[in-house]
Write a structure and sequence with these properties.
With 94 residues, this protein is α+β, with helices and mostly antiparallel strands. It has one domain: Beta Barrel (OB fold (Dihydrolipoamide Acetyltransferase, E2P)), CATH 2.40.50.40. It contains two helices and three strands. It has helices spanning 5-23, 74-93, and strands at residues 40-46, 56-61, 66-69. A three-stranded antiparallel sheet has the order 1-2-3, with helices on one face. The radius of gyration is 20 Å and the shape is elongated. It is found in: Secreted.
Length: 94
């Protein structure tokens, strides 16, 4: 008689690895350093309603780094507004 135990254990391990891979891209803490708009290329929004545990703004720098920031901080909103203004200026030039 073939035991199902090894198959179930294998499936459980695959599931655990898959879940941990999904969380790999989540911010788990915020930067303590205030950043400047000129260093940023863009941003995305992470919500705790999805797979991640905290709400965050993920800034993408000109140097290819990702910075996790607290959306309740004023400097974070200032950078978002700066980036939006930059997009508006580019759109007007087109």
């Amino acid at each position: 008689m073939v035991s199902c135990k090894p198959v179930l254990i294998s499936l459980l391990l695959l599931w655990i690895l898959n879940v941990s891979a999904m969380y790999e891209d989540c911010c788990v803490s915020y930067t303590r350093k205030q950043m400047k708009c000129h260093a940023m290329k863009g941003y995305s929004i992470q919500t705790s309603r999805d797979l991640c545990n905290i709400d965050a703004i993920i800034f993408y720098t000109k140097w290819g780094k990702q910075i996790c920031a607290d959306p309740s901080q004023q400097w974070v909103m200032d950078i978002i507004n700066c980036l939006k203004h930059r997009v508006k200026l580019i759109a007007q030039q087109s």
